[in-house]
Fold each of these.
Amino acid sequence: MNSRVLARQVYRRSRTPEQRLLAKLRHNGECLEFIGCRTPLGYGRISVGGETIYAHHLAYELAHGSIPNGHIIMHTCDNPSCCNAKHLVAGTHKENTHDSMRKGRWNTPRRIADRRAHQGANATRILDRADIEEIRNLKSDGYSCRQIAQRFGVGHNTIWRVVTKQSYREW
């Protein structure tokens, strides 16, 4: 193995997840933005113990403890790359959806465009595990397949297949 690669791996393993997170944060106003690897929608990703997780989840857990069961981490600043613990709160999918609707971020043209851009070459697989969970939660909260489909920029038949577990059964 190349000595530089080995040295980099040893250095990476010698730093704690907290140290690695802090090294990737930069101030932008009151937000602490993660400047490392990000998802197409802007959420930071970081590797911890061989598993890749959202950077804002790590920031929340370091500041507040573990994420309560059945909850997600919401950004009060609406900046997906923000890891400022003061801007992160635990909430349910339903609370997050209502917050999004109240702030006028529900099904905005930019959000739809971001989702469509995320499709890339593999247009048949644009939904990730978090999307599948949110879709099923929204349907159980009484939203129609058409409303949910507009939110995710996919067809209502796709939503129906997700809800009835004809697609993404393993999730």
Amino acid sequence: MRERVGDLGIRLARYGVLGFVFFAPVSIFAYQVAWGISVLGMLLALAAGAMAWRRTPLDLPLLLFLGAEIVSVLVSNHRLIGLRALTGQWVLLFYFVFAQVISDTRLLRRAYGLLLVSASCAAVYGVWQTFAGRDLLRGRPLGSIAGFYVATGFFDHHLTFGGSILITAVLAMAFAATSRDAGARLRLGGALLLQGIAMLASFARTAWGGFFAAVLAMTFIFRGRLKRLALMALAAGIVLAALAPPIRDRIGTLDGFLDDPRIRLWRTALRIWRDHPIFGSGLGTYETLFPVYKVPGNPHNETLNILSGCGLLGVAAFVFLWLRFFRTARAAYRTLPVDDPLRPLLLAGILIAIAILAGGMGQCFLLDEEVATPFWFAIAGTMLAAAEAGSANRRAHAAPIDEASESRRGLSGVMSA
């Protein structure tokens, strides 16, 4: 009986993962149901002993970050607001669950493939929207910029669509850049092109900036042909931004940027922080303390949002989290051979993190559940790939050397092994 329960839990967790990635680009309700199935499967498997809790390098930083948020609520003059905002941080649980239910990189690759298929379908709908000007799900017309309509995909807001498609476009780019199969490169390149067009159709400048940052990072990661391609892509993006009227109008001028509402939001966040430097004004209190401009929401900057709400304590935990992530992923990536199948998974996670954090300079993507959940999926998958890379390296170093085999292969063969 115990064994059957454990097997059931493992299957539910696996099917829940696949259901989540399939529905993530199209339906918040459906992916929450799939995630719930994963949680149920995880609990059954843990209870039956079929799954052991897996520790990851990001457990401590995330717990410290949550601790900083709790402290900010306790010292705030607006505790009820902080408590309500704290319940919104449940999205961080997605990381801890995904770190357990993504059982191996084989499942991760399958999930990523399914995610790209679903995201490509969402991209087709988004591209259609930019010409048709209709949100069929909500029965409403869409706003327009320079003669093109602002696509929202299956979501309620164009910034959410931009953030969602940013993750999958970077994923397709990372896989296309590292694939050694011509057919796979063609398919991934097509998915990248389609999702890139949809990202443009979202008119989400933060998504554009995040993608630009990911491509720029590739110029430092790669050498030779791939580096040249990344540089050419950057140049093409700059030319497109300069010559295409819709994109040029959306980006605007320097004077327009300096007068942008986001700049005023950022300045207000800094003024709030100056009065509450260590622990912040309290989680979720930004809108309460922002009566002058009467702009609802958040500072549209990930770091400033944390700084104003949780102070230097929260920012320190946030920085620690991403330093540990990049250090772990980079170390694993650099220790693997060029043709190792784990490298594309690590590269994808690194670039997705760079893209979302760079886009977070103008938008709080990590507060947007539809963007944050696939993001934490990718982060958990990256830590799994890093762990498998470490295990592979330990096995390689622990394996006894067969002297006869060494003499046949030569010293260079042993070193490459």
Amino acid sequence: MSNYEKFQHHGSRTMERIQPNTAPKKPKSKKCRISVRSPRVSIGFMVFLGVAYLVWNLHQDVILFDEMESLKQKHPFQAESSCQSVLDGIPFASNTLRQALIYLNNDTSKLEQDIIIAMESARLEYVIHYGPILEQPYLNVNSKKGRYAFIIFEDIYTYLNMKKDFQPWFDKYLVQFNVGLILFHPPPDDIIEEISFQDMPGLPLKIVSGLSVKDYHLNSFSSMLHIMRPAGVFSGDIPSKKRWTLFDAYNETVFQPVSYAYISENTLDGNFNLTLAFSKIKKNIFNFVGSLLFGQVGSEWFSTPFVSVIQDPGELDGVRRIIFGADLEFWVHKILFLDAITYGSYCKMHVPLERYVQYDVEDVFMGLPGKRLLVEDVNALVRFQKVMRHIIPNFKFHLGFSGQYLFRGSVEENAGDKLLLDRREEFSWFPHMWSHEKVHSFENSSDLCKLMERNKQFAQV
């Protein structure tokens, strides 16, 4: 039985912070005591700890590799290759307006701002509703057309605590028009005193909240991934101002993991450790010494990957759900949020994979002597373009020019101007004003057009 399966079996176990009056009693043995009067014993014991920790750390790496291979075998879900494959065979796929409904608790939260920024940067339309759902939402345009392509809840409990009169009608709309849900679990207000799983009301999920996390990685078999691609492990502690919630998807026929994370030892505010004099290394030897003296004290919590973003492809009741255990502060979640929009809306609203990139280089002929382009600068631009063309076909820098300032630098800088003109066909160009005048300073359009025409004539010579 693997560590992951073993943890599933003991999912109700809790790990409490050790207090002086509740700590397990250590066997009274002078052999484990670091004696000040016996420096040889002290140094020998420290060497023993160091070697044992290195062996234990190597063993943990092997366990991590085995766990990841086991997880991949448990969740052999093939990622969709394109939006078209998602849309194939789905009725009502286009029978909604291309806009989202967003339920927010208030208009001041950081998550609310991040959601709106992501929607607007992707040029997706949305409607915001603040506060709880006090009346039946107006979701239909008519009997054959839905008003929203997907729905976002800033707080998952706003959805789970919906009035019972609204819930069946709400879920019927989601199933009829293939509308998915994106849900965020709110962080706890206080630092937790223990780690324990709790049942989520309304969904067959167990959750543990108030965590600091580390070693974040993606499930390469998740069908939700569209823009984001799994690429190794984001090692170390994940910086976050708020605590995370992780999921234990014990009902694996319903839920599929999108990403995993490990619980960080910092979860209990760094106070859950043995009383050791080595303050700088106490976090590193916590698990080893804990298992040595107390017998696997909470080691399963820190060595088992838990689910940080989870998806229900509709197995529960026909509704697609994507649940985030944290906000969008972590940059990977920002991209996963866009993928969740694509997946949850059945590609009715999606961020395409095509990107258009333009690099503008302003005022290539301007600048005081000593601050202008040289021959080596122009050659560097040409070389960089060739490298970029392996990624972006026909890539060119877009150069802005004001003709009056040509050959106004030193001898070396004028040579750079000449080389830029000689290789002009390798770039694309756009005109500024002849003398870089400010457009808003002109009192009439005729003077403006005269200087623009002069810059045009310079470009045609």
